[in-house]
Each structure stands twice: as structure tokens, then as C-alpha cells.
């Protein structure tokens, strides 16, 4: 058999390939030749073949068939064979393959070899891919080599020990005696790997960290080494851009950071050396900047002196002036982390940070924006907002939403006056109204309502803004609301803060009617506009024109607009005597949180519950948007949401599909209550009153309440049976029985329910989430309903399931409950 081609020739041949297919053909041909050579046990060219195989592996082609050949090379007595064999083992083997265990004995023999280079190969391989079993077997040999006087072996043994500790942390104490003399070594390679080993031990074991702080006095040794590096003259062996061994300096600074964290004595011992590093390191080269950055991180993490922290922040301030974008980004990120603890020191660099808002790099602009908002306080609010609003005008669309939210929060927290607050938010809505959060409209409406003395000024400003631009929908909605509330102030010209404008009633109505017909207006905006026109019927004299506009929209194709118009027409006809009282000016509004996670914000005479996720609730198995499905159905103000105790796992779906599920159940009552928690200890025991010391279903007395069929459609039938809880007669216990008459199982079955707010409801976990086909079984679930006022029970239900791979959803209203169930 002819001798195989050399690796160099193979590389040259592959590089001549013009297409991927041609390259694959060459690789396949060579792999076939290599396989033939392996089968013939050709020891002469095994090393060459494995080397070529490794090159193919680096190109991304399969080379697993050479694993055993690597083991044969490792067992060879020739150094050249061992070198390729160990390299192949590191590339082709890992601890997931049992073949690597066959190497253990070879590595052990080579660790005790008389040649240091063979020992080095074995240490490199063990440190690269040794499994936990191999590490346990060979840790003793590594520890012996760590104590040897040969610096070449000590540095490799230290890195190998790091790998052993990561794989088998309990072997850490074995290496403790060997670490005592490591830092006294003159060789920088040994020092570097020793610091890496000590860092690993300190990070993984608090006991080791305490031992090195107190018993070994590690900090003074590290300070001495670092001082020698700073003060030493030029050393060509370790010099990088005029700095002596920056890699070792960075490693020592990281270890000092770990040792000094939350420890006064250690921090005190390293304060001076950190100051020396910070002042003596050259900043003209990137190497010096890397050391300074590590120094800053160390100063910020340990219990350093205040002057040293100011020095560190000044270093970051100098980084902001650097031409390198990466250094500026690192500086902004670091300042953002320290701004809470050293606010005044960071404030000194405010102008430089604001200048970064004009940077072309989007990452730097985002960090600068976040840091600018963190620097805002009561003293600089006007200047900072001026800069940030200028940034909002000119920034890319991707920044506008976050910037607008930041301006809103800062203005709410530090506003020097209500007029300034209103002007600032209106400026945001004018320039970036399409990007603001959904809650900005009710928040601004609340702010305007509570600023009684600013009503005339605000409505005049908003009216002017409407004349200029109606494309920003949040601004239009706020303006419509304010004109409806304070239109009489606009027409009367009572504004004292600025020169009043002369506006007639017809001009105001023309603007609002224009919003109703504009293509730019969303359905929500049209609803605001129609309600504003209706409110003006009690503030303006032109009632006939308003009646005509309202009656036109009684036949609108928009259901929401049509419903509003029909109800307003009814006010004009049947209840005209009540209209002035119903449409009178809104009182001062307050955000009030009920005894749960629902926050009530009143806007435009309506109540909008803003759901906040309760932090005390236990996690459920379903996705987050499914858990909030039932909360989303609370679009109206007359229902009580329910959170199930447990829910079967269900694929994610749209969150808002139950919006206004109970919108037509308009019953009287107090404010909407919070979701009923499934944890009795974290909520008032409204349903389990008197049952806290008893099993869940005890003392349920059967009553003569007839069952009923609540739903029967598409093969799915839902029956309700009723019982009455003895300790609390106001609690009705409803058990649902879901059956399936189709030929296929209904999987991922979920039953959800909601009731008017005069009731309270608890939905317990179902018996299963699969409804068997052909009525071969039922799924049961218990509902508890508290009805303290003995009102007629009404319920909306939502059913979700999967049938033959297709998801099915349906809504239904249940109004025919037996009288015995609620009386």
C-alpha cells in the first residue's frame, strides 16, 4: 500500500477545491484511505493519519472513527505519537463518551514519566477533558506535581487542579497544603496559574475564603506581588505596551476583589495599593485601561475609603472621553451600577454623560439614556428634562418608548410645579405620543383633574395642540377628555397663566366632530370624542346640534361607539332630568389600591382596573398569559376575577380574548374586589369562613337543589349540581360535570368562570384536563360562590379545549340557576 499523503499536501489539495461539493468529495476520498489504513493496523503512518483527521474535524467533518486510534497513539512510547494522540483525545473525546475512561491508566503513567514534556501533555489533557471519575483517580498525582520544583510542571499542575476542583469540589482540601508556597515563586507563569487556583477555591468555598483571609494572610502577599509589578523596571519577557505583565495584574486584582468583599481588615490592607495602581497606570494604551477597569471594579466591591471611590468614578469619567466605543460603553455600564451608592460623585460627570446621548452608537446611547434618568433629582430636574426631551425629539423610534416612560416617572417624582409637570407630559405626548405606555392617558387625566387651578390653562393648551396635530392618539384622547370636562372654561377665556384665546362653542364642536370622522382616530379615540361631545351638552347652549351628532352614531358599525350613542340618546329622551347630574364635572381622583393586586384608576366616569401581578400567590403550571386570561375578562367594573388554585398545563394563547366578557352584567355595588387567592392564609377567609380547621369538603350537606345543564354544544355537555355548605349558608358549592359525546377525546380542557362583583367566587382544581370520548367518563370541578346579598346568581363561563388537534374556545352565559341555589 502506498504511503499516505502528508498533512501539508492534504491542506494544499483541499484549498484548491472550487466548490463545497468538490471539497466534500476530496474529504470522503481521504477518509476512506484513512479507514483502510486503520483497519490494516498500520503503525507507521497512524500519527500522520490522525493528524489529517484532526484537520478534517476542524473543518466540520465527522472524525469520530479515529477515537480509538488516538488511544493507541497515547500508549505509544514515541513523544511525537503521544503529542498527536493527546491532541486528538482533547478534540474528539469528552466525558460523555465512555471511551475516555480507557485513557485513565495511560495518563497516570505519563504523569509519572521521567520527561517533563510528556507529563505536561498528560496534565493538559486531564485539565481539558477529565471527567469526575478520572479527576478522583488522578488527583493525587496532580497534587504531587503541584509541589515539584519544576516551574514548567507547576503551572500546568495548577491549571489542572482548577479543573479537578470544578469537577469534584470535595477534593479542594487536598490542594490546600500545596498552595502555601505557590505565591513565593518567581516564575510569572506559576504565579498566574496559582492566582487562578486560589480564586477558584475562594469562589467555591466560603470556608476556604475565610482561611485565606485569616490564616494564610493572602492579602499582604498579593499586595507585595502587585507592588513589585508596578514598581519594577522594564522587563522584555513580561512587558506588554510598556506595562509589566498586565495579565497577572488583572488576575491579582480580581482575587483581591473577592478577598476584600464584606471584610474590613482585608479592604484596609489593599486600599493603598489600589490607589497606587489607579494613579500610576498608563492610560494611553488599551492594556492600561483594562487594568484600570479591574481596579475600579475592585474598589467598588470592597469596603474602600470614600476618597478611593471618588477616584474610581473619576477614572470612569475619563473613560467616557476615550475615542474607543467599547471603553465608553464599559464606563457607562459601570457608572450605572454605582450611581445608587455614589450619586454625588457620578453627578460631577453629568455633562459628559449627557453628551453621550448624541453618540452614533445605539448601545452607548441606550446606556447614556438609562444613566441620565438615574441622575435626575429635584435639583437638576429642569436641565436634565430639557436635554432628555431634546433627545426624545431626535432619537430613533426604538428609544422613544423607554425615553417617554422615563420622562413620565421622573416628572411625577421630581416635578417642581404642577404647571411644569403638565407642560412636560404634554411635550412628550406631542412629540412621541404613539410610543407612550397605555397608562399614560389615565395618569395625565388624573394629574389634570387634581390640578384645579390649572384647568383653564390646560384645556387651552390641549385645544391648541389639537388644532396643530391629531395624529398622536394619546394626546388626542387627553385633549378630548379635558374639552368635555372643562369646555366652558375654554369658551369663557378665563385662562390667567397665558393670553386667553377666543373660541366659540361651534368651533369646539367642529374639532370634536372632526375627530369622530378622521381616519387617524382609533376606536378608543372616537369613544373619548363622543363622550366629550355628550358632556358639553350640559356646558354649552347648542344642545340640538349635540343631539343630532349623538343620534347619527346610534347606527355606527363600531359596536362600542354605537352602544355609547344609544345610551346617550336614552339620556336625552327618557332621563333628561338626570343628565346634568350624570354629566357633572368629575371630582378629584385618587389612585386607590384595594385589598389585592387591582389598582383602580377612574377616567371619564368609568373605572378601569389595572391588574398588577400579586407577588404572594403561589406559581401555577400554566403560562403567564393564560393565568391572566380570566383577569382580562374584567374589562367592565362589575365582576370579580378568579384565580384557580391549580390549572392544567395549557398552550399559550391570546391574553385579551375575554375582554368585556361580563360587560353587560351591570349590577350595582362597591368597587371591584381583588382576585380571590387560593391561599387561605394570605387573604380574608370569605369563602372558607368557619372551615379553616376542617377538611375542604367536610360538612357539606346535601340540599334539595335540582341539577341543571349549563352548556350543551358540539358534543360537550356541562352539568351543574348544587350543595350548600353547613357552616356558612351564604356559600353555594357547585360541582361541574363535563362529558364528551364525540368520538375523540377533548384534551387540554380548561373551564373558567366569572360572576358579578356582588358575589365572590373560588374555582378549585379540576379532576383532569382530558374529557374522555363517547361519554366514557367525566371531568369534575368544584366552584364555591359566596352570595351575601342573596341576589339572583348569574355567571359567564369560558370553555377551552383541543379536539382532533384543533383548538376550540366558546363563551356562554348562565342565567337559569335554580332559585334554591341562591336564595
Task: Supply database-style keywords.
Immunoglobulin-like; extended; transport; single chain; membrane; 15 strands; 823 residues; alpha+beta; 4-stranded antiparallel beta sheet; 6-stranded antiparallel beta sheet
Largest sheet: 6 strands, antiparallel
Number of helices: 33
Mean pLDDT: 82
Helical content class: 40-55%
Query: Structural class, please?
Result: alpha+beta
Distance from N terminus to C terminus (CA atoms, Å) equals 100 Å
Backbone shape: extended
Q: Radius of gyration over alpha carbons? A: 38 Å
Low-confidence stretches: 593-703
Structure summary, number of beta strands = 15
Percent of sequence in beta strands:
5-15%
Subcellular location: Cytoplasmic vesicle membrane; Endomembrane system; Golgi apparatus
Keywords: Cytoplasmic vesicle, Golgi apparatus, Membrane, Protein transport, Transport
Membrane topology: Peripheral membrane protein
Protein name: AP-1 complex subunit gamma
In short:
The chain is an alpha+beta fold. Helix content is 50%, strand content 11%.
Any overview of this molecule?
Strands 7, 8, 9, 10, 12 and 13 form a 6-stranded antiparallel beta sheet that branches. Among the domains are: 438-583, no CATH class; 708-821, Gamma-adaptin ear (GAE) domain (Immunoglobulin-like, Sandwich), CATH 2.60.40.1230. It has 33 helices and 15 strands. Helices cover 50% and strands 11% of the residues. It is extended. Helix 6 (104-111) runs antiparallel to helix 7, helix 12 (218-231) packs antiparallel against helix 13 (246-260) and helix 21 (381-394) packs parallel to helix 23. It is α+β, with helices and mostly antiparallel strands and 823 residues long. Mean pLDDT is 82; it is low at 593-703. It holds the Pfam family Alpha_adaptinC2. One of its GO terms (biological process) is vesicle-mediated transport. It comes from Cottoperca gobio (Frogmouth).
Amino acid at each position: 500500500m502506498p504511503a499516505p499523503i502528508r498533512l501539508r499536501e492534504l491542506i494544499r489539495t483541499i484549498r484548491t477545491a472550487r466548490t463545497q461539493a468538490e471539497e466534500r468529495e476530496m474529504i470522503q476520498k481521504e477518509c476512506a484511505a484513512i479507514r483502510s489504513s486503520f483497519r490494516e493496523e498500520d503503525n507507521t503512518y497512524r500519527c500522520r493519519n490522525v493528524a489529517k483527521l484532526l484537520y478534517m474535524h476542524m473543518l466540520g467533518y465527522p472524525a469520530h472513527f479515529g477515537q480509538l486510534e488516538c488511544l493507541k497513539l497515547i500508549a505509544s512510547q514515541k513523544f511525537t505519537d503521544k503529542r498527536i494522540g493527546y491532541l486528538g483525545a482533547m478534540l474528539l473525546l469528552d466525558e460523555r463518551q465512555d471511551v475516555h475512561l480507557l485513557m485513565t491508566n495511560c495518563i497516570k503513567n505519563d504523569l509519572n514519566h521521567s520527561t517533563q514534556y510528556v507529563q505536561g501533555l498528560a496534565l493538559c489533557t486531564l485539565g481539558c477533558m477529565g471527567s469526575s471519575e478520572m479527576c478522583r483517580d488522578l488527583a493525587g498525582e496532580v497534587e504531587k506535581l503541584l509541589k515539584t520544583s519544576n516551574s514548567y510542571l507547576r503551572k500546568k499542575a495548577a491549571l489542572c487542579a482548577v479543573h479537578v476542583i470544578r469537577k469534584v469540589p470535595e477534593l479542594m482540601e487536598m490542594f490546600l497544603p500545596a498552595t502555601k508556597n505557590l505565591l513565593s515563586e518567581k516564575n510569572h507563569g506559576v504565579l498566574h496559574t496559582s492566582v487562578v487556583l486560589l480564586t477558584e477555591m475562594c469562589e467555591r468555598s466560603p470556608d476556604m475564603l475565610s482561611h485565606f483571609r485569616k490564616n494564610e494572610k493572602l492579602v499582604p502577599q498579593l499586595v507585595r506581588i502587585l507592588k513589585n509589578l508596578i514598581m519594577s523596571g522594564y522587563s522584555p519577557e513580561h512587558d506588554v505596551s510598556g506595562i509589566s505583565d498586565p495579565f497577572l495584574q488583572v488576575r491579582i486584582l480580581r482575587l483581591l476583589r473577592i478577598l476584600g468583599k464584606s471584610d474590613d481588615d482585608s479592604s484596609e490592607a489593599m486600599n493603598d495599593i489600589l490607589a497606587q495602581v489607579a494613579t500610576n497606570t498608563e492610560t494611553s494604551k488599551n492594556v492600561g485601561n483594562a487594568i484600570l477597569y479591574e481596579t475600579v471594579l475592585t474598589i467598588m466591591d470592597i469596603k474602600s475609603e470614600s476618597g478611593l471611590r471618588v477616584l474610581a468614578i473619576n477614572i470612569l469619567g475619563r473613560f467616557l472621553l476615550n475615542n474607543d466605543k467599547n471603553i465608553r460603553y464599559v464606563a457607562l455600564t459601570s457608572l450605572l451600577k454605582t450611581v445608587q451608592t455614589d450619586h454625588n460623585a457620578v453627578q460631577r460627570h453629568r455633562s459628559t454623560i449627557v453628551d453621550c446621548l448624541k453618540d452614533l452608537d445605539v448601545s452607548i446611547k441606550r446606556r447614556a439614556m438609562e444613566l441620565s434618568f438615574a441622575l435626575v433629582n429635584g435639583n437638576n430636574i429642569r436641565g436634565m428634562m430639557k436635554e432628555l426631551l431634546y433627545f426624545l425629539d431626535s432619537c430613533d423610534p426604538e428609544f422613544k418608548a423607554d425615553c417617554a416612560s422615563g420622562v413620565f416617572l421622573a416628572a411625577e417624582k421630581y416635578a417642581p410645579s404642577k404647571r411644569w409637570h403638565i407642560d412636560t407630559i404634554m411635550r412628550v405626548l406631542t412629540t412621541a405620543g404613539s410610543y407612550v405606555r397605555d397608562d399614560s392617558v389615565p395618569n395625565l387625566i388624573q394629574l389634570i383633574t387634581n390640578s384645579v387651578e390649572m384647568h383653564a390653562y390646560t384645556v387651552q393648551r390641549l385645544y391648541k395642540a389639537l388644532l396643530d396635530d391629531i395624529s398622536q392618539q394619546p394626546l388626542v384622547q387627553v385633549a378630548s377628555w379635558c374639552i368635555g370636562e372643562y369646555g366652558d372654561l375654554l369658551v369663557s377665556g378665563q385662562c390667567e397663566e397665558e393670553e386667553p384665546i377666543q373660541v366659540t362653542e361651534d368651533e369646539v364642536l367642529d374639532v370634536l366632530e372632526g375627530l369622530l370622522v378622521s381616519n387617524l382616530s382609533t376606536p378608543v379615540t372616537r369613544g373619548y370624542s363622543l363622550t366629550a361631545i355628550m358632556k358639553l351638552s350640559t356646558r354649552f347652549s347648542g344642545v340640538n346640534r349635540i343631539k343630532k351628532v349623538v343620534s347619527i352614531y346610534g347606527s355606527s358599525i363600531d359596536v362600542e361607539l354605537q352602544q355609547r350613542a344609544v345610551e346617550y340618546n336614552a339620556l336625552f329622551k327618557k332621563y333628561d332630568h338626570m343628565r346634568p347630574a350624570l354629566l357633572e364635572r368629575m371630582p378629584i381622583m385618587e389612585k386607590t389600591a384595594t385589598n389585592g393586586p387591582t389598582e383602580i384608576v377612574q377616567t371619564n366616569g368609568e373605572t378601569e382596573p389595572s391588574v398588577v401581578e400579586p407577588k404572594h400567590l403561589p406559581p401555577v403550571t400554566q403560562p403567564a398569559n393564560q393565568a391572566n386570561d380570566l383577569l382580562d375578562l374584567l374589562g367592565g367594573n362589575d365582576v370579580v376575577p378568579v384565580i384557580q388554585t391549580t390549572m392544567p398545563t395549557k398552550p399559550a394563547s391570546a391574553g385579551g380574548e375575554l375582554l368585556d366578557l361580563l360587560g353587560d352584567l351591570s349590577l350595582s355595588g362597591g368597587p371591584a374586589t381583588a382576585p380571590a387567592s387560593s391561599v387561605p392564609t394570605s387573604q380574608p377567609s370569605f369563602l372558607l369562613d368557619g372551615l379553616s380547621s376542617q377538611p375542604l369538603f367536610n360538612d357539606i350537606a346535601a340540599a334539595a337543589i335540582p341539577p341543571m345543564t349549563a352548556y350543551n354544544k358540539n358534543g360537550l355537555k356541562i352539568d351543574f349540581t348544587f350543595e350548600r355548605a353547613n357552616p356558612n349558608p351564604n356559600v353555594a358549592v357547585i360541582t361541574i360535570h363535563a362529558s364528551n359525546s364525540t368520538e375523540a377525546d377533548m384534551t387540554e380542557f380548561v373551564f373558567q368562570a366569572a360572576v358579578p362583583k356582588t358575589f365572590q367566587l373560588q374555582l378549585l382544581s379540576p379532576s383532569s384536563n382530558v374529557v374522555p370520548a363517547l361519554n366514557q367518563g367525566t371531568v369534575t370541578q368544584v366552584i364555591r360562590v359566596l352570595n351575601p346579598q342573596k341576589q339572583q346568581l348569574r355567571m359567564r363561563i369560558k370553555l377551552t379545549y383541543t379536539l382532533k388537534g384543533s383548538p376550540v374556545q366558546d363563551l356562554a352565559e348562565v342565567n337559569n340557576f335554580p332559585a334554591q341555589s341562591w336564595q
